[in-house]
Design brief:
The protein has about 575 residues and is of the alpha/beta class. The chain folds into three domains: about 400 residues, Alpha-Beta Barrel (TIM Barrel), CATH 3.20.20.80; about 55 residues, Oligo-1,6-glucosidase, domain 2 (Alpha-Beta Complex); about 80 residues, Golgi alpha-mannosidase II (Immunoglobulin-like, Sandwich). It contains 16 helices and 18 strands. The chain has an eight-stranded parallel β-sheet, covered by helices on one side. Helix 9 links the parallel strand 8 and strand 9. The protein is globular. About 55% of the residues are buried. Bound molecules: alpha-D-glucopyranose and calcium ion (CA). Calcium ion binds next to loops.
Length: about 575
């Protein structure tokens, strides 16, 4: 498949999970109960569940830590690095797929839903990872690829054998159009027709992604039950829930209409006939009910791509019983540092999600890293502080992509394009620049492997690496760790309301978070490369009295009341008392 194929996926910025035997799960309960009791005491109110204000760290296992020198990261590697994650302060980790897979889409083409690929380890390694994570208070989420399997999955192998095969209807098969061509003119998100002809049986199968990723037929009760059983398997094996891959695409319009304007330029992944069908809701309700039937407050984190905020609101379920945490692709879709664009996205998430927690992030395995995306080539580190401060001080749940906390950026396309393919990297993918090995140390192989890494290490590891940053209190790593700590310990940041403010300056974003007692923090962010003065208004009632600089970069003295002066890309977080 060509690179442009994956370029589409990257442009779309598309965004899985685990739990276990009830005994193991029961062990989680006392901890969360304790956590909640503390939170409740501090907030003076009933605490909200952990996932409404969590920090979830996304790990691309292939690139995180290699434990056996084959140049490919693995589950034991993740286990080795749990202390680092505990130090950073994350509540949960989401592992992208580690199932057996032919790797046309690096694991998102699953050949066996209830196993670990040998290159990533064994089920025993998985069980140990979960147990060790739990000891450190970290939950583990499995990436559940539910829209499609690999074409090498035994279900598809059977399905394609004959039209009469009992698994035929587990996938989406159609007769050719009268001219012998594809049944409809629909396009795949990865480019080309969404239909591939299977010559042996004379029908086409549907795939919204690669031809090697045939869509499963969620209208078939047998398939539905088999997939629910997959969830139960991982829930028994200690998963705290799932990151659900590509949730909008489970069903297609049963009328199979032709697209009147296939080349309109509208996103291929958000057509009314291929995404967001009403039948998705009962499917998600069933999955949520299964997750809820296990102890320990487990969750669904959704890669729920949508076009508008009201579409996003629906993914939570009108009765709040569908996806706990659908990712907010509207926030992550803001590609330039624009205070007004961010304010619009943040305010709408607060006003139009019926109080549900927004799920905020910028970087992931499908899109350019934020250090690169927002960086201006001069102030990248300071800009990275600013984007982290914004996401981590807003209400809701934040996702961090591995290495984001170190200032990892994309590897240059020039380097990537010059790379030969190899058995460890059978296909080139436009998303490779953001999937390079985690930068553990300043060594050429970054402490990722002793062998040949499957993708090259970004040479900036000489400067941006965990070993040196953990030792340096002024590093980006410590900025993240401090923000995460603040979210845990400050009641207003953890569970408080969002207060929309007017910064009086189009280059400055200002908002506050306030607890029930009226105490809170003001966050002011200068999204420009020149000094700015804010003139903040919009407080309900009187302007509060600021009492302390909680975090600021560059450092500041206590500002004069109400009119903070900010350095280029300056960040100020001030606490206030009620008035
Ligand atoms: C999701 C994943 C992406 C994958 C696609 C197909 O968007 O995040 O990496 O390519 O689904 O499974
Ligand atoms: Ca390995």
């Amino acid at each position: 498949m060509g690179k442009s194929v994956f370029g589409m996926a990257a442009a779309l910025a598309l965004p899985c999970l685990l739990a276990g035997p009830s005994v193991a799960a029961a062990k989680l309960a006392p901890k969360s109960a304790h956590h909640h009791a503390t939170a409740a005491a501090m907030a003076g109110a009933a605490a909200q569940p952990w996932w409404t204000h969590a920090v979830i760290y996304e790990i691309y296992p292939r690139s995180f830590q290699d434990s056996n020198g084959d140049g490919v990261g693995d589950l034991n590697g993740v286990t080795q690095r749990l202390d680092y994650l505990k130090g950073l302060g994350v509540d949960a980790i989401w592992l992208t797929p580690f199932y057996p897979s032919p790797n046309y889409d690096f694991g998102y083409d699953v050949a066996d839903y209830t196993n670990v690929a040998p290159e990533y380890g064994t089920m025993a390694d998985w069980d140990r990872l979960v147990a060790e994570a739990r000891k450190r208070g970290i939950r583990v989420l499995v990436d559940f690829v539910l829209n499609h399997s690999s074409s090498e999955h035994p279900w598809f192998q059977q399905s394609r054998m004959s039209r009469a095969n009992p698994k035929r209807d587990w996938y989406v098969w159609h007769d050719p159009a009268p001219d012998g061509g594809p049944p409809t003119n629909w396009q795949s998100i990865f480019g080309g027709s969404a239909w591939t002809l299977d010559k042996a049986t004379g029908q086409y199968y549907y795939h919204i992604f690669l031809p090697q990723q045939p869509d499963l037929n969620w209208r078939n009760p047998g398939l539905r039950k088999a997939m629910q059983d997959v969830m139960r398997f991982w829930l028994r094996h200690g998963a705290s829930g799932f990151r659900l891959d590509a949730t909008p695409y489970l069903l297609e319009d049963p009328a199979w209409p032709n697209d009147p304007d296939p080349k309109s330029g509208a996103p291929v992944g958000l057509k009314p006939y291929n995404s967001g069908l009403p039948g998705n809701h009962p499917i998600m309700r069933d999955l949520r009910a299964i997750v809820n039937s296990y102890p320990g407050d487990r969750i669904l984190l959704g890669e729920s791509n949508i076009a508008t905020i009201s579409d996003l609101a629906k993914v939570y379920g009108v009765r709040h019983d569908e996806v706990n945490l659908p990712m907010d692709f509207l926030y992550s879709g803001v590609k330039t540092l624009d205070a007004q664009a961010f304010k619009a996205r943040i305010d709408e998430a607060e006003l139009k999600l019926h109080g549900e927690p927004p799920v905020l992030f910028f970087s992931n395995h499908d899109s350019s890293r934020q250090w690169t995306r927002f960086g201006d080539g001069v102030h990248n580190d300071q800009i990275a502080r600013l984007t982290a401060a914004m996401t981590l001080t807003l209400r809701g749940t934040s996702l961090i992509y591995y290495g984001e906390e170190l200032g990892m950026g994309d590897l240059s396309k020039a380097v990537i394009n010059g790379l030969p393919l190899s058995p460890k990297r059978k296909v080139a993918d436009d998303r490779d620049p953001e999937r390079t090995p985690m930068q553990w140390s300043g060594e050429p192989k970054a402490g990722f492997t002793t062998g040949e890494p499957w993708l090259p290490v970004n040479p900036v590891t000489a400067t941006y690496n965990a070993q040196s940053e953990v030792q340096d209190p002024t590093s980006l790593y410590h900025w993240y760790a401090d923000l995460i700590q603040l979210r845990r310990t400050n009641a207003a940041l953890r569970e408080g309301a969002y207060v929309a403010l007017d910064s009086g300056n189009p280059k400055v974003l200002a908002f506050a978070r306030k607890d029930k007692a009226g105490q809170g923090v003001l966050v002011v962010l200068n999204m420009s490369d020149t000094p700015q003065i804010a003139n903040i208004s919009g407080w309900q009632g009187q302007t509060p009295v600021f009492n302390k600089v909680v975090l600021a970069r560059p450092a500041i003295q206590m500002p004069s009341l109400g009119n903070p002066t900010l350095e280029p890309f300056g960040v100020q977080i001030l606490s206030f008392d009620p008035r």
